[in-house]
Specification:
4-stranded antiparallel beta sheet; mainly beta; elongated; 5-stranded antiparallel beta sheet
Length: 515
């Protein structure tokens, strides 16, 4: 740890002798793995170890990462043994793996803000006569409710949210946000590295992780024409091969959700895009849907929605149904443009969207995240009053607002479910990053507010680096620490260690939120 030093309680030769004598008897070829959860200052960190049942194990912590031979057991650690005395003085750091071959040593972190500037390195050793060492794990203590950059920046800047998929050893593969390259983030050591060729995802496209580990990219704005495209592709991170595909319909601002049977439901979107003529978005709205089948890499038609819509959210529930909510839409039959305050539940069993349900306050370009208890939080979004504009066609007559409330959707075993309004965000947010937290709440970070300058008739964006936390029982939204800089349409991704990574749409560095 760079900024802190403790005086060892025993000489180095005594420490390594204890480590040698304490570990006693029969080799196994099975890997030994070490992970980390927690790390909040004033809380604790846990270090799950996975090996063979009945093996003796020891957890070693150090300030320095340096090759250190351990006499007598034939191992060279990747860290120093300067704090090996902690292995024997800290309860649970030395013992026998249980019947499942597991142990979870813990470390209490004092409420010392200076710890926020430090880094510790850890490895586990286990065996019975022949010993092996685990992978390296790094602990960077962090004040709760704050953001902190990862130890190093992505190898290639992540400009847009793109898509991601889980990889072995608590790694995350990021795709599409860095142009034609994939990047791997190693959660255990907070390291980024390039991971081969990929496909750059366009603006207003969707990236959906498939059950087999591949990632599906659909639609968005064509980089040449600036108009919605029917282009799609599937990227295989194992072979690093991108397979080009074509949807039935060009779509931008559409929804895409993974179904329990492995297929992807693609909903709505727009076939036209012209910022100088807002009405073009409504004339090109789609009410159609289509399915992607990963077994055949083909698209097939799906059922139509009652209301065409774009810039909505699409969230798969724990029941397997899909909540399609909000967006810009047209009222059925009379075809009047509006901002939707309706939601539909797609039922894969009946292959239908059913009838709509209402929530408070129409919104589009909002965010949605499913919480750990199965509920869904709709975050912020834009509002739009077209009443005067439809008469004058003058952009200055558009009335635009940015919502500072959230809608909490509670599904029901019977019937549609219900929405509850939760107020309290620091500022109106559209395009915010949102992700569930391990304690049942959610992180809401960044985004923008939108207004029209009456003197110039130009759109003006107010980006924000602020963040809020949603908690339940009772439902509430409270401010937390801010990010290093604003992020627009960034991505928030829960990590296996209980933190949340926010990346894309702003600074080139990724940031970690500690709950």
């Amino acid at each position: 740890m760079a900024n802190m030093r403790h005086t060892p309680m025993m000489p180095a030769i005594h420490r390594t002798t204890l480590l040698t004598l304490a570990l006693a008897t029969a080799a196994t070829a099975q890997n030994l793995s070490l992970d980390r959860t927690g790390g909040a200052i004033g809380g604790s960190a846990n270090f799950p170890i996975a090996g063979q049942p009945g093996e003796i194990y020891a957890l070693v912590l150090a300030y320095q990462e340096v090759a250190t031979p351990i006499p007598g057991i034939g191992l060279t650690l990747d860290i120093s043994d300067e704090l090996a005395n902690l292995t024997y003085s800290t309860p649970g750091w030395f013992g026998v793996l249980n019947a499942s071959g597991a142990a979870s040593p813990a470390l209490s972190l004092p409420n010392w803000p200076i710890l926020d500037t430090t880094m510790w390195s850890l490895q586990a050793v286990a065996g019975t006569s022949t010993f092996r060492k685990s992978n390296l794990v790094r602990l960077t203590p962090q004040l709760p409710g704050t953001f902190k950059p990862t130890l190093n920046a992505p190898a290639s800047p992540i400009l847009t949210a793109g898509g991601w998929t889980s990889a072995p050893n608590n790694e995350v593969l990021f795709l599409g946000g860095s142009g034609p390259v994939a990047q791997r983030y190693k959660v255990r050591t907070e390291q980024w590295e390039l991971a081969g060729a990929s496909l750059g995802v366009g603006i207003l496209a969707q990236a959906t992780g498939l059950q087999d580990g591949r990632v599906l990219f659909t639609g968005g704005l064509d980089l040449t024409t600036g108009q919605p495209t029917a282009a799609a592709s599937v990227y295989d991170p194992v072979t690093q091969v991108t397979t080009p595909l074509t949807m039935a319909t060009p779509r931008a601002g559409h929804g895409a959700s993974l179904l329990p049977n492995g297929r992807v439901l693609i909903t709505g979107g727009s076939t036209s895009f012209d910022l100088s003529n807002p009405l073009s978005l409504f004339t090109g709205l789609l009410g159609s849907s289509e399915f992607f089948n990963p077994a055949t890499n083909t698209f097939t038609p799906g059922p139509n929605m009652l209301e065409p819509r774009a810039f909505h959210t699409s969230t798969t529930l724990t029941t397997g149904r899909v909540l399609v909510a909000g967006g810009i839409a047209t009222i059925p039959i009379i075809n009047i443009p509006n901002v939707s305050n309706t939601a539909y539940l797609f039922n894969p069993t009946t292959n239908s969207f059913g009838l709509p349900s209402l929530f408070s306050g129409g919104r589009f370009l909002h965010s949605a995240t499913q919480l750990s208890n199965g509920r869904v939080l709709l975050v912020g979004g834009l509002t739009l009053d077209l009443t005067t504009f439809l008469q004058t066609l003058n952009i200055a007559d558009l009335i635009i607002g940015t919502r500072s409330d959230c809608q909490l959707f509670a599904p029901s075993a019977f019937g549609f479910g219900s929405f509850t309004t939760v107020n309290g965000m620091q500022t109106g947010r559209a395009g915010a990053a949102a992700a569930p937290l391990a304690n049942g709440g959610a992180l809401i970070a960044g985004g923008f507010g939108l207004t029209i300058n009456p003197s110039t008739s130009q759109f003006e964006f107010a980006l924000t680096e602020t963040a809020d936390r949603f908690t339940q029982s009772p439902n509430a939204i409270t401010p937390v620490g801010s990010m290093a800089a604003p992020r627009l349409f960034g991505a928030a991704l829960p990590l296996p260690d209980g933190t949340v990574m926010v990346v894309g749409g702003g600074p080139t560095n990724a940031e970690i939120y500690q709950n």
